[in-house]
Amino acid sequence: MKAGPAGGLMHVVGAGLAGLAAAVALAAAGREVRLYEASSHAGGRCRSYIDAELGCRIDNGNHLLLSGNRRAFTYLELIGARDTVEGPADAVFAFFDAKTGRRWLVRPNLGRVPWWILSRRRRVPDTRAADYLEALALWRAHPGARVSEVLDKTRPLFARLWQPLAVAALNSGVEEASARLLWRILSETLGRGGAACRPLVPRQGLSETFVDPALDVLRRRGARMQFGVRLRALEFAGDRLSVLRFDSGPVELAADDRVILATPAAVAARLVPGLTVPELYSPIVNAHFRCAAPPTTPAFVGVIGGTAEWIFRKPGVLSVTVSAAGRMVDRAASDLGQFLWRDVAAAYGIRSITAPPARIVKERRATFLASPDQLSRRPAATTRWGNLMLAGDYTDTGLPATIEGAIGSGFTAAQGSVVAGDAGSLPAKLQGAWLRAAIGTRIWREQTPKLQ
Ligand SMILES: Cc1cc2nc3c(=O)[nH]c(=O)nc-3n(C[C@H](O)[C@H](O)[C@H](O)COP(=O)(O)OP(=O)(O)OC[C@H]3O[C@@H](n4cnc5c(N)ncnc54)[C@H](O)[C@@H]3O)c2cc1C
């Protein structure tokens, strides 16, 4: 393979959400994009596929968006998929206690003044309004502090709200997860009022929302996309990256060409000399049960005190997510199916004690572990090579490894890759998103000095 004539080709390697966001942003800015992906499909850790055994289409894992995920929604608007997600008009979260059978709703009010904590009917049962102020301790926490060292584990609010939130958002146990990172999440969501916390999920599937529309837009804008091509090595010449060596052949870079490496952390660390990345991972287990629940039941339920953590009702499927699942990832799929089903049946009022046909998906390297020491290993998007930028949920976005973080990283890398002066040609919406991402990351960096 030989790159096209000089004129600034944008080579994006990796078609997960970070790479897709970068490619879409660059294409929107009128740049000529080349997208390379090692596997046969785009989407990386966020995609849907047909499961032959279950006989239906499933997501690799349940992904929840919040209405306040500004980078994600900018991306959805760019690819014309804003209306492919759905959710309630209010911020409503249904919970079920697997030990007592108790059910409740947490309903933050839409405005920024959090008067919902004054209302027994909106806040977590057995809590007082004053309990919620404890969250401010996360803001003041030492950069090395973990969630369980800062919040009081003995209070009902911990088990019923802070812990499920932290584990779901950071995919790390509270004994390990960074207190500061949880604060960042709270300030981007609850801190901006219920309007930023409306839970939203893809109406059909992850690919139909995040992947297929992006590929359509890229195709329409003339981007050249190659699948099944794995980047094996990078070659450098002075302060520039000069050759991308794929297993299918080399791509020699012209003087104006730029590269965004949007592979997972471990791959980037193998390719880029001297790159430090998070090295510990946290698994996520998903169980998809072929089973229809009545449409009157909640679209998703948080389970407290059980094995399942979040259960999502989808057409013909009930889907369970267990984050920070190190304790169960080595167990046999049949065992996992059986004991996760107990929680599903109880939460959705299903009588059958025998689990229906299920697909268990274990993502051992779902995300990096969000512990303070692993966060300190996140690299910046820029590298010492002028034409090479990094993108991916593992880069130093100030956000956990999420859709929002991955997309934000893609935007940041795209912005860094366009030469100064070109920004004027970028869609205004995108410039705003980049600006917000950059400001958010800067505040994060200032508040979070690197650990020694
Ligand atoms: C089970 C599960 C549940 C999750 N739940 C949520 C959730 O509820 N909410 C949320 O916001 N986030 C969630 N996440 C996290 C979210 O999916 C990730 O943060 C995001 O998808 C990461 O995108 P990425 O582009 O950074 O990386 P990836 O998706 O890993 O993309 C990297 C791409 O690079 C390709 N690649 C690798 N090596 C090479 C190579 N050598 N050459 C070319 N291409 C290469 C890969 O095939 C892949 O397509 C979840 C993740 C998992 C696994």
Structural notes for this entry:
The structure is a single chain. This protein is of the alpha/beta class and 452 residues long. The protein has three domains: 9-45 and 205-279 and 373-447, FAD/NAD(P)-binding domain (3-Layer(bba) Sandwich), CATH 3.50.50; 48-87 and 199-204 and 280-368, Polyamine Oxidase, Chain A, domain 2, CATH 3.90.660.10; 107-196, no CATH class. The protein is 29% helix and 23% strand. The site of flavin-adenine dinucleotide (FAD) has 36 residues, from helix 1, strand 2, strand 15, strand 19 and helix 11.
Task: Briefly say what this structure is.
With 452 residues, the protein is α/β, with parallel strands linked by helices.
Name every ligand kind in the structure.
Answer: flavin-adenine dinucleotide
**Unreliable segments (pLDDT under 50, ≥5 consecutive)?**
1-6, 442-452
Share of helix among residues? 25-40%
Largest sheet features: 7 strands, mixed
Essential attributes:
single chain; 452 residues; alpha/beta; FAD/NAD(P)-binding domain; Polyamine Oxidase, Chain A, domain 2; 3 domains; 5-stranded parallel β-sheet; 12 helices; 29% helix; globular; disordered N terminus; disordered C terminus; binds flavin-adenine dinucleotide
